[in-house]
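Bit of a strange request maybe. I'm writing a small parser for structure token strings and I need a real example to test against, not something I typed by hand. Could someone generate the tokens for this chain?
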Amino acid sequence: MKQKTSSRRVKILVAKLGLDGHDRGALVLCRAFRDAGMEVIYSGLFATPDRIAQIAEDEDVDAVAMSLLNGAHGTLFPRVVQALNKKGIKDVLVVGGGVIPEEDKKDLKKSGVDEVFGPGTPLKDIIDHITTGVSKLRKL
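Reply from user aminoacidic:
Good idea to test on real output. This should exercise your parser:
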């Protein structure tokens, strides 16, 4: 992976995983990230964890924002982190969101997901978290 510099804008992959066809929230995020000055790549629907890792590698992204509403977050979010690690990609911020029970968030964070956002989270909070997290990773 190329050296990421702090002077370039954040490049983010918005990922819709598994058999979840509900993309309205992901599309809202894509637009909000773009409006915040980020370069946005959208995976499209029904992506696999391996496909997300491949896109992340090919596009040299700074962050992956996963959206899932079908309850498979406990399986698919950790598999994305594993697929990234398998490719040696460790300098990418991974966040998730959707309808995720509070009690599942701790395990997701243990698996390598940096933060988990639920319904109603202000877009500014998500953008600020990603911007700050990417900035910290770029300094490592």
